[in-house]
Design a protein that fits this description.
about 300 residues; alpha/beta; 10 helices
Length: about 300
Amino acid sequence: MMNLPSLRHLWHLRALHDQGHFGRAAEACHVTQSTLSASIKELEGVLETTLVDRSKRRVVFTPVGIETVERARKIVKEVEDLVGFTTASREPLSGTLRMGTIPTIGPFLLPRVLPSLRQAYSRLRLYLVEDLTERLIQSLHRGELDVVLLALPYDCGAVETVTLFEDPFVVGLPREHLLAKETHVKPERLWHEDLLLLKDGHCLRDHALAACRLADRRLTEGFEATSLTTLVQMVDNGLGTTLLPSLAVDAGLLLGTNVVTRPLFADEPARKIGLVWRRATGRRSEFRLLAKELAERAKMKSKTAPRL
């Protein structure tokens, strides 16, 4: 009979790779460092190969070790999905769920939807991770996240997607700007403006450029921010104009500023807010329920100052 590694072995191996340090990996697994080290050694014995080069002062995985980690990661995730599936079959949206979200959605949507979601599903343990879309999708495919709340369109690879709602863009302007006199703003009116956008890496930047039909990104170089709050402050100081998602404006992003908004009159004036998960997951029905619950709660109007 073939000698097989245990799930504990694979879990310890994954932790060591993620932490890059025996002590931190042991702490993450709630075991002693000697226990974790012995577990890795046992795994090497079972597989009859060296996974970690112990001749180095730092943790260095061998080529076989790196490939083994990736395979182990998939196996552990499949087992976790199995447990999640059986748990959800008994009681939907209970247990642990790890959600990634981007900075232009999470702070503005989640405070509106999570309190009632937690009240309806009291046994749900929702862990949140905020990051840029690219890194969140990488974490999703590595099995570190279960679902990702993001803005579409975006190439996410082998995922299933549910669109929750559309989030229209509005033009953010200093109150005294000439365009503030308009009832709506056409994209071509922004072509010669100092259009302030988020830095590269934020998908909101790409969606805003697409909405304005601005193919030449050089027009926006030198006018970049790392957050919507900073972007609004730059506009408030008269440095230019911008495009803002209605979701953030409705959540009170402009409170305390002299920035006003006008609707964008364009062919595709909105981004889509969606929930994605790995196509191969065994928790599809549970994630679809989550998407339905989020979409329904997102319809609730937040108490914000009226747009001027």
